[in-house]
Design brief:
The chain is built from 16 helices and 17 strands. Helix 11 runs parallel beside helix 16 and helix 12 runs parallel beside helix 13.
């Protein structure tokens, strides 16, 4: 059972007071008891001397002849001292005169007395001197009498008689009981006062301690309340020290909390995922980027359960043993590439306490690298094919085929087409380079999209007729379809899209070009009934050199750069381009530009 310090202090105070009262009371009682004993002793001794002086007048005691006179004389003395019994014994200890109830005449005192031979009479008979009862202090059985035996001797030291005086101890004990009662009441009062004052004093001591305890508990919970200093004593100094300590601790906790929040905010806003594991390989922290990279809402709590499920043959112990320390490992899953870096962290004593894992999403870098490789391969292929044709035809001509005019003209025609193909490829690459390097400049002016569409349809009409296509232009001619842009670049975009629709639509197809304006936007929709594009190819249709059907595209003279250039140019004009298609169901290209509102008033 827990006892508060306040009750302990009260208990100590009361115990001290009780011990003091018991000790002082015992001393007082002892002194009072001794004082009353000495008074009773003095009284019976003086009575014995008075009896001796009265009876031993002529130095002769004759109990037979003078008995009556002696009894009368002693009765007068007893009347003066009513609490005293007087007995006159002969020299052998037999009672000759009895003025009391304890003994009768003729009794032999040493044998009839309650104390037997240890009584004062026996000692007087043995020693021949006056003896008095020894007082017994702090005894359980109360002593009932105080006795004195005074011998009467002749000049030759012959014992004639013994004056035996007895007095009751009732007065002694009555007085002692009264004193004890008074002391008891005093003790109760002292204990009551001590309890009150000790409660007050203990409260003066424990109140600041309780305040310290309360503040300490609040400090543990993160709150702080300054304790008022009520005194300049040790408690006050302790309170002052606690306030200072709490203030410094609170400031340190706030600094730590601020640093923790700052670190947490930094970790949460990092582009990289960060995991931390303790020495046992248990996950203790992971920022939200880790969950996003792994596509998980919950991550296993142990290192050896997390990464093996993604196909990595690594263990926590192997990393901590520096076998693959600080080396990056590329993890590939679900079309993602995650680069992992491992670094153990140490305590202030230099002991390794755990492991940090930094996760970098390098998917875009991997894709860019792959695109770079594909770009180089595609450019090499696109240049090698016409160059191979030109070289072979040139070698044939140089080998004598030039003598055949018709064959030479045919070869030269093919060589011219391949050269134009290379020229177009180089021109497209230069266009993309200028766009990538922000070197593409637009000559902006007011452009009527309707007129540009009509010019495009007119320019592509021959190609469409050769394949038996029906081209339908659908728009309200009296409306304005004005935008701000570069007419030559816009014409290039429209030619590219309409040309693709004609190329990739089987013979006798239909191409619908619809022009409308909606919510301050000019919208151009070009729909064909061609071969369409699969969903997989549609996702990459704007990538450079990407062809849905590579063989068909090369056969038709495509470079795989047209849509990329068209997209970049549309975006340079602040517009958007979208393609919706399904394999075998045709394709719809939608371009949107901001409409230019002119006030002719």
């Amino acid at each position: 059972m827990r006892v508060s310090i306040q009750w302990k202090i009260i208990g100590i105070y009361l115990s001290i007071v009780l011990v003091i009262m018991i000790a002082s009371g015992s001393f007082i009682i002892l002194k009072i008891e001794d004082q009353y004993f000495k008074r009773a002793k003095s009284s019976i001794e003086s009575t014995a001397i008075s009896v001796r002086d009265l009876l031993w007048i002529e130095g002769v005691l004759d109990f037979e002849s003078d008995r009556e006179n002696m009894v009368d004389t002693l009765k007068n003395l007893i009347n003066v001292n009513e609490d005293i019994d007087i007995y006159i014994l002969d020299g052998n200890g037999y009672v000759q005169i009895a003025l009391g109830k304890a003994f009768m005449r003729g009794d032999y005192v040493p044998t009839n007395h309650a104390n037997g031979f240890s009584g004062v009479v026996n000692r007087t008979l043995s020693l021949g001197v006056a003896t008095t009862t020894d007082w017994q202090y702090f005894v359980t059985d109360k002593q009932s009498t105080v006795e004195h035996a005074l011998p009467i001797k002749s000049n030759s030291e012959e014992m004639y008689a013994i004056i035996y005086v007895i007095t009751s101890t009732a007065e002694i004990y009555n007085n002692v009981d009264e004193v004890m009662s008074t002391l008891g009441m005093g003790t109760m009062l002292a204990l009551a006062l001590a309890g009150v004052f000790s409660a007050m004093f203990s409260r003066m001591i424990t109140q600041p301690i309780k305040a310290l305890t309360t503040s300490a508990k609040m400090l543990v919970e993160g709150a702080f309340q300054k304790i008022p200093i009520a005194s300049n004593d040790e408690i006050g100094q302790l309170t002052q020290s606690f306030n200072f300590m709490a203030f410094e601790l609170r400031r340190s906790m706030l600094d730590m909390s601020s640093e923790k929040n700052k670190l947490g905010r930094i970790l949460e806003n990092l582009a990289d995922g960060v995991m931390a594991f303790n020495r046992q390989g248990v996950l203790i922290h992971a920022n939200s980027v880790c969950y996003d990279m792994l596509g998980e809402t919950k991550i296993d709590h142990r290192f050896d359960y997390i990464f093996p499920k993604y196909g990595l043959n690594i263990s926590f112990d192997s990393i901590m043993s520096n076998s693959i320390n600080n080396k990056g490992i590329l993890m590939e899953f679900d079309d993602k590439y995650i680069n992992l870096h491992f670094a153990p962290y140490e305590s202030s004593h230099g002991d390794i306490e755990g492991l940090t894992v930094v996760m970098q999403d390098v998917t875009s870098q991997q894709k860019l690298d792959q695109m770079r490789k594909d770009f180089v391969a595609n450019v090499s292929h696109e240049l090698r094919t016409p160059l191979t044709t030109v070289k072979s035809y040139t070698e044939t001509l140089l080998g004598g085929a030039i003598e055949d005019k018709d064959l030479a003209l045919n070869f030269l025609s093919v060589m011219e087409k391949e050269t134009d193909r290379m020229t177009n490829l180089v021109q497209d690459l230069l266009e993309l380079s200028r766009i990538d390097n922000k070197q593409m400049s637009l000559t902006r002016h007011v452009v009527d999209v309707g007129e540009l569409i009509e010019e495009t349809v007119e320019a592509q009409q021959l190609q469409a007729s050769m394949k038996g296509h029906k081209v339908i232009l659908d728009y309200v001619r009296r409306d304005d379809y004005l935008i701000e842009g570069d007419s030559s670049r816009l014409r290039q975009i429209f030619h590219n899209i309409v040309s693709n629709a004609i190329k990739y639509t089987p013979n006798s197809g239909k191409i619908v070009i619809k022009l409308l304006h909606q919510d301050s936007k000019v919208i151009i929709k070009i729909t064909d009934s061609g071969i369409g594009i699969s969903k997989q190819d549609l996702e990459r249709i704007f990538e450079r050199f990407y062809r849905a059907d590579k063989a068909r595209s090369r056969q038709m003279g495509g470079t795989g750069l047209g849509l990329s250039i068209a997209k970049e140019m549309v975006e340079l004009h602040g517009g958007t381009i979208e393609i919706n298609s399904a394999l075998g169901r045709g394709t719809e290209v939608t371009m949107t530009f901001s409409r230019l509102e002119l006030d002719f008033d």
